[in-house]
Structure formats: C-alpha cells, structure tokens
# Entry
Amino acid sequence: MAATTTLPASRTRDGRQLRWLALSVLALVASAVLGLLVGSRGLSPAEVLAPLFGGDDPEAAAILFDLRLPRTLVGICAGAALAVAGALMQGHTRNPLADPGLLGVGAGAALSVVLAISLLGLTTPLGYLWFAFGGAAAAAVIVTAFGLLGAGRRDSSPASLVLAGAAVTAFLGAVTGVILLLDTSTLDIYRFWSVGSLSGGRSLDVLLPVLPFLAIGLAIAFAHSSTLDALALGDDMARAMGRRLGPARITGLLAVTLLVGGAVAISGSIGFVGLIVPHVVRRITGPGHRWLLPQCAVLGAALVVLADIIGRVVVQPGELAVGIVLGVVGAPVFLILVMRMRGARS
Amino acid sequence: MSAPRLAPDIAPALRLDIAPALRLGRASVRWRPRHLVVVGVAIIAALAVAVVSAGVGDFAMSPGRVLEVLAGQGTRREELVILTIRLPRILVALVVGLALGMSGAITQTTARNALASPDLLGVTAGASVGAVAVIVLGGSSGQVAGLLESIGVPAGALVGGFLAALLVLLIVRRAGTTGLQPILVGVGVSALLGGLVSWMMTAASIEDAARANVWLTGSLNGRSWGELWSLLVVVAICLPLLVPLSTRLGTIDLGHDVARGLGVSLLRTNGALLAVAVVLASVTTAAAGPVAFVALVCPHLARLASGASRPPVFASGALGALLVVASDLVARTAIAPIQIPVGAVTALVGAPFLLWLLVRTRREVRR
Amino acid sequence: MRHTTLLLTAAAASAVLLLGACSTGTAATESTSVDTILGPVAVPDEIDSVVVLEGRRDLDIVLSLGLPLVGFPYEGPDSVMELEAPLAAATAAAINDGAEELFLADEINLEAIAEVAPSIIVSRVGDVEPIIDELTAIAPVIAVNSNDGDTWQNDLLTVAEATGVDDRADEVIAEYDARLDEIASTYAEQIAATTVAVVSYESTGTLVQSARLPALVLEKLGAQFSVSMTDAFDAESQDMEYGAEQTLAAHGDAEAILALADTSGEWESAQADALWQQLPAVQSDTVVRSDKMVNEGAQITAMHLLDLIEQLYQKV
# Structure
C-alpha cells in the first residue's frame, strides 16, 4: 500500500504527447485566426470581423468570406495533407530526405495541368482540378508499380521506389517541357500553379470536392501508424513482427497518393512541407507514428497558413505565393536540420 | 602475352577476366582488345552520325557533300548552314556527350554504385542553380550577352555543381553510406535544388522564365563557337588528368580495403576523380543545360559492350558522344521545323532505360 | 581537322560579310548603311523577303509597312487567349501571300531562317543579341528596341528608312496621329473629366503597368490617371502589383477601366470576384475588356488600341 503509485511510463508519455498536441492545435487555431485578420489589405480586426456579426461593409465581407477564409482553409488542408504524406514517405523509405514529390506526383500533376490548359483551355484551378488529381494519382501508381517490380532484394524496395520516381519525374518533365515550348501562353498560367499558391481562384468550390479524398487519406494514414513503426525497424524485423510488406506498402502509397494528389490539386505543388515538418515534429514526439502523424497534420497546417500570412504582408500591396515563401524559409531550415542529423539511418 | 589456359571443365564456369599487360618501363597497361574495339567503333559511329547530322535539316545535303564543304568546296550558302549553324552545335553535342559519359563512368566506379550518376547525385541540379542564377541575376532584358554568357554562366554552373556535390557528401557522411543511401540523398538534393530553380524562375520576369525554362530542359539550339570554346578548354584540361587517374580506377574497383592495401591513397584518388567528374558534369550543364540520363546510361552500355567488370571511362565517353549527337539529330528533325531540346530526347529515351535497368537488375542493385 | 575547320569558318564568315557589304552575288547591287542599336548595318536596296523573330512589335512593323513577310514565330496550337489578336487579320493576309510560321519564339530555328534566305531580319534587340553572329551571316539584322524609351514610331521609321518605304511609314504614322487627334477632340470633355486606369486582371490579383502601350497612348491623349496608375509611373519598375485583397482599394478611384484579361477563365473569375464587382467603374459599366496583346506592338496594335479607348470614352 504505497502512498504513491508510479504510473506506467506509457501513460505519462501519452499524457505529455497529448499536451503537446493540444498546444499545437492551439497554435493552429491562432494561425488560422491570424490568417483571417492579416492580409495585404490592412484592415483592423474590428473591420475584418464585422461581417461575421452582421456588419454591412461589402468590401470587408468580400475580403473575409471570398478571400481570407477559403485560402486559410485550403492552406490548412494542404499543409496537413502534405506533412502527413511526407511522414509516410519517410517512414516507408526509411530515408530522412524523402519527400512526397519523389513519387513523381508533382510531375504527373504538372503534365495533366499543362495538357488541360493547352488542349482543353481550362485555365482556372477549378477547371483543372481533377486533371491535377488524376495526373498525380496516375504518376504515383506508375512509380509504385515500377518500384515494387524492381524491389527484388529485401532492402532495395525503398530505393527502387525512389529511383523509379526519379525516372518517371524526368520523363514526364521532359514531355511537359516540350508542350510548354510549343504553347508559350500556357507557360504563364502553369508557372504560378507550379510554385504553389493559395490565392488565384481557390475558393471553397475547389476545396470541397477534394475534401473527402483528403479525409480518407488521413484516416488510412492514422490507421497505418503501427505498421510504419514496424517498418522503421527494417523490412526483416517488420516481417518478423507479422506485418505483410506488400499490402503495407500499397496501403501506405495509397494514402500518400490521396493526400498528395488532393493537396496538389487544390494548391499546386508546395514544396518543403512534406520534407521539413516530420523532422521538426520528430523532435517533439519521437519516432512513434501514433503521435507523429497527428502532430504533423496540425503543425503542417499551421506552417502553411503562417507562410501564407508572411507572403501577404512582406511585399504589400502585392503578395508572395506561399510556395515562394516556403522555398525561401525552407531551404535554410532544411540545411540546418541536415547538419544536425546525428548518426546513420539505415 | 597469351591468356592462361584453364582446364576445360572449369573454363565455362569460371570466366576470368585475365588479360595480358603491355609494359613500358615502369608503366603497365592491360591489353583489352575488346575495349579498344568498342572505343574505336563508338568514335567512328559518332563521327559518322555527326557528318550525317550536318547534312540533315531544312537545307539537306548528302554526307559526301558535307565532307566536301568541310574541305572548303561549298557554296556560300552551304558553308553558312554547315559551318556557322550546324557544325558548332554538333561539336558541342559530341563534347557534351564525351564529358557526360566519362563523368558517369567515374562516378559509378568511385561510388561503387551501378546507379550513381551526376544527375542523380544532384550535381547537374546544382550546376543548373548556378547557371540560372547567373542568367536571372545578370540578364538585363532577360538576355545574358557577351562575356557574361561565355564565362559567367559556366563559372556559375561550376560553383553550383561543386556546392551541390559537397552538400551531398556532407549529408551522406552523416546519414550513412550503406546501400543506396547516397542515391537517395542525391535524389533528395536534386529535388531540393530543382525547387530552388523553379523558385528563381517564378521570381524572375516571364521573359527570363521562358528562356530559363528552355535552358532547363537541356538544349543545343543556338549553341555556337562561344559555348564550344569554354567547354573544350575544360575538357582538354581534364582529359590528361584522367589518363593516370583511370588506371587507378581498376584498383579502386577491387574494393576499398584491397585498394588501400595496394597502396592507393583512397582519399586523394577518390577526391580527384570525383572532382573531375563534377567539373565535367558542371561544365556540360553550363554549355547545354542539364542533359539528363547520358551519364547514367552510357557507362552501362559501355560495360556491357566491352565485357568489363566496371564501366570503362573512355568507351563510356565515346558512347556518350554518339548518344548525344544522335539525340540531337532526332531533336532537330522529329517535328521539324520545330526543334525539341536535346535533353527532352535523352530523358524520353533514358528514363525508360532506367526503369528497365531497375526491373532487370533487381538482384544486383548494388555492385 | 578542327584547326582547318576553324580557319575555314573564319574565312567563310569574313567572305560572307565582305560579300554582303559589296553585295555581289544574288543580292541587290547596292545597299544602304543604317544605324541600328547594334551598330551600322548594310541593308540591300531590294527587299524580297523579311523574317521576324519575336512576333509582336517586329511583326506589327513589317505588316503595317507592307513588307514581304516570309517567316515569323509559331505561337502554339490553340492559344489560351480568348480574344482575337490585333495582328490576326493582317497576319492571315500575309499567310495568304506566302508567309510561314517557321520556328518557335523561344527556340529559334536558324536553319529554317537560312532556308528561306530572307533579305533582312527584323526583331528585338533582346532576341537578336545572343545569336547576332549567326543571324548576320544569314541576312542583315535590323534590331528594334521595344522596351525602355524607344517608341514604336521610332522603330517603324528605322525599319522604313532601312527598307526604303519611308512614304508608307509616314502614311501610317499620319493615320495614327489623325485618329489620335480625332479622339482627343471628340471626347475632350470626357478625357479631361474621367479618371482612367489600365488594369490587368490576373489570377493572383491585379497589375498596373505604366510603361506599356495602353498607358503611353492614354498619356498622349492627356488622360487623367487614377492613383494606381500614377503610383506605377513613379515606381522604379514602372508597374504596381496588387494582391487580390487590394482590388477595390487600389482602383476604387478609377471611373473608367481598360481591363486586360487574357483567358476566359480569368475574365469569368473577374465577374465572380466580389471586390472587382464593387469597383465604381464596373458598377457603372465603364469597362472595356482586352488582353495583354495590346501591351506591345506598333501601328496596327496602336490603332486597335485607339478603337478600344474610343469605346471606353463612349461609355462614360
């Protein structure tokens, strides 16, 4: 009958992780609110929020409901999807530099979008939405097929996936490049899509059709966490622990395809989120995917929203696309992360 | 100087690559006739394709006529087309192919990795960053003219290529050198740098971006004597360096421990070899943009053709020259009068080759 | 072999230049020396064929002067631009007379140009400078400068002087001036009393450019500009970019807007854009739509632009 009982370690750890998650959610909510309040058109918080309470300034209403709200929501969804997809890719390939774009999804989406613009004249994000998604999914399927085909040896499965991705990306990129060369006016439209942006006609019409896919992708990813933990120990260990590798890979890549395809369809190809966020989150949560994935989702969403906010204020009255801001911030952060990486990861 | 005879029942199972050696004083070199044949055939084929290519186009000429023009017997218009427009471009194609083939062979042997190549290791991407940075920062109306173009862009590409190689080396040392880790690191760094280039293109004006877009696919269009000079100078410097270094490649191929045991200073030799490979890859990127897959494909073809255990450097270079000049021919004529960038053709051919290689060598991804 | 080839090239190039200068051979017996931005150029007196490299101002100049066009760049299968280009009709007429799309604007096919062996090549300095040696070997190059400074009239006169069609040049410039004066006098009241802006509507926001043709022509007419336009005039890059949120704030004082929207998608987005619809000019329907093709050009484009401006002031 001890006066104190020591809680099992897992429960304290879970408690701590839960607190971190709550903190992250708070950060996300704060970013989202900031996203509503801040913008290239400097309105005071009262002015911006007035339409919510029945104010009748049409300009503020337009800015709030047509511009800031949709882009914040799109940013949250895209950020969450990309961060989780990045964590999945890094878990499956056991490579800290894996990024969802390695599966060729960016190149596939780009080619489909360019074809949609140049052959069908669909020049708005809503117009080429399903092309982007379809192209991303098709590329992911092709890359996965070749990756699994080339994975004769046990350990080469992730490597062959990445190499297949590099080959398919190069191939699709070449075709895209030739089409852009032949149709110069497409380049203008494609250019801004390719850098990743939350503005430019991304209304809720663009987000809502894709939301179910993102939701399913997230659900699969979260359910997949224990398999990812097993995979991190190496294919042999995972098999020894009773996981079947083939189905596991396919599930994981299905989740990545849904998430990245959806993210790319709604926001163009935003880089660095899938690469950096899992690294940062791993410092908080450790390698266990049960907490890693939700944290990635929340912090990824917050990162994209914050980057968008920065893009809105630094070059007033213009705006910087979120992809550009992330590029400027992301590359140095990535380098710092790399420098601090300890030890070898097999 | 005859090959040793083995007992008949062993011979089929054990095919030893024992070749006689030619000795001259203290230097000795192995006598590999098949290798020399491959080099010779590849060079002749490359030159033949070059001559044919010089005759193909909107203004068509037979190869015989081309040779006559080269010897000085052409009309003014023929000389214009051949000497001013086509010849520099074809020569650049030959030299670019040579440099890329050699660079790929060196990288594959030094990294002891069948899939190592400058494009996959991020060197080409780094060189692109450097070159595009010079184009975008230095161009006033989107054009880089004169001195800036002939020296600034190659210099930028060299700096970019070296920085990328350093980055990959740094990460590989920390993240692990086992298996195909270096390739994954290289692909990651390539993607990173590719994103950087896209960012630079978007931040620049549309004129710069359109030109950079063309450049990024790897194009020989408009390549003139200016680009050829800087390229030739660098390759001419590297070639004599490669001769002694390539003889050490064979030793390195035996494995790090054995090589050390044989007294080859790994750090210096590997360092020198990789430096040469990076320089070759970077300077070709500066001249023609990132021409993908040549550095990956040619070493394999050379190895298969000459039956060697490692990709022979000069054979790989010769095959590279053949591949690029043939690709340029296709690029110029496929959808005439529109010219496709040569990098697009090599990617369209090389990517399926890489996929085929992946599937075929599933058991020996690592040599 | 390399050395021999080099000597041959040097010999060939100098021979070509000498031949070009002396104009023996198939070219005309005399040539005039014309001063262009890239230096003096010897232009043959008889112009049988002209190639342009860029497809906007150079094409416009050649078409309006009625020079025999044989080659121009290929723009793409179906362009995403919704409206017909100002040069479309003239270009179609030229194609009927034998002009051809020879090459891509970004991948200039020198051989195709050499194949048609034009008498002269006309194009922008920026496009011409990197390949000036190769181009000069094919034909004399008249470089015009379509950014900074030089107005299209200067470029037109340069080319006209070089090709001996000065009369035609004076004619078309006079035509333009007459039209300009006509509009200035007929709509004098409206011009003086209306604040006008030239706004490019893009997916990411709006853009105002003060160094392009529309702004310059309006300036000539003595138009009153909105705040966004004057800011653009003062800006270093001669343009002002506004994010999507700024649309109303930036152009709220413009009473008439020349809106440039390239694609049907962009124009539809503008109609759906609540901030754009709140603009006073849009609400009073004093908006005329065009696209970026009017930003750049010479006499034909400028005449088309004057038509649009007249439409705009008619709506006031």
Remarks:
- The longest helix of chain A spans residues 58-93.
